[in-house]
Amino acid sequence: MAQTDSISAAVEDYAKAIYALETAGGGPVSNNALAGRMGVTPASASAMVKKLDGLGFVKHVPYRGIELTRAGRRVALEVLRHHRLLELYLARSLGVPWDRVHDEAEVLEHHISEELEELIAAKLGNPTTDPHGDPIPTRDLKLIETETVPLDSLGPGARGRFTRVSDHDPEMLRYLADRGIAPGDDFVVVDKQPFGGPLFVRFGAETHVVGGGLAGAMRVEADR
Fold first, then answer.
1. What is the rounded CA–CA span in Å between residue 221 and residue 224?
2. pTM confidence score
């Protein structure tokens, strides 16, 4: 989808944020939640929502909040495709560490043409996931999600494959990178401490201590 001059970087950022909140919460998004995600006041978020409404990108659900329209969802998925392709290109082709690619892609995602997007996708072999394991929307803006669960929901003896982790906390990413843990790695839960304590998880031949916060952020495919 070619972007138009009327779709500013701010509009794209808000559409992407609403999409992320809708996906996480399974429904309409409150103005306060959107303001928190964007790091602005509720009044600023409300003003931008009115602009998005005028562009036909959101609608208000009475007593529940805001949700993207079909057009708004396409805007969000287009910029998400740019973002995740750029993350992978920066990591794989330029060697940028995976804890830094998110911030770099945030800047660049608004400024690449559709032609450059296609060149990057072709160069990378039309990938399906970014460096953090998040799915990349397809060329026709379909997002194919696999069924995953948080690592901290599993108990001792559970095994599976680490698939993705949020790219919003660079410290978590550095912690995993320092220990050689990356999406695609197989694991076994060796032990789990009660009351939100850490998990002891074996990746390959090494057993690592994974704190409750990090274990909650790591998404995995568990063997059944």
1. 9
2. 0.87
Q: Which of 116, 130, 120 is nearest to 88 (CA)?
A: 130
How far apart are the C-alpha atoms of 60 and 30, rounded to whole Å?
10
**Residue 181: closest CA among 192, 190, 189, 172:** 172
Do 198 and 215 touch, CB atoms closer than 8 A?
yes
Phi, psi of 192 (to 5 degrees): -145, 125
Higher pLDDT, 71 or 24: 71
Maximal C-alpha separation, the chain:
56
CA 10 to chain centre: 18
CA dist 189 and 172 (Å) reads 19
Q: How confident is the model at residue 4 (pLDDT cuts 50, 70, 90)?
A: very low
Separation CA 14–CA 26 (nearest Å): 17
Instruction: Report the amino acid identity of residue 145.
Output: E
pLDDT of residue 169: 87
Spatial separation of the C-alpha atoms in residues 138 and 81, rounded to whole Å:
7
Query: Over 70: is that where the pLDDT of 1 sits?
Result: no
Give me the helices (H) in 140-200, please: 170-178
Whether the predicted pLDDT of 5 surpasses 70: no
- Cα(207)–Cα(189) distance, integer angstroms: 9
C-alpha neighbours within 13 Å on the C-beta side of residue 192: 16
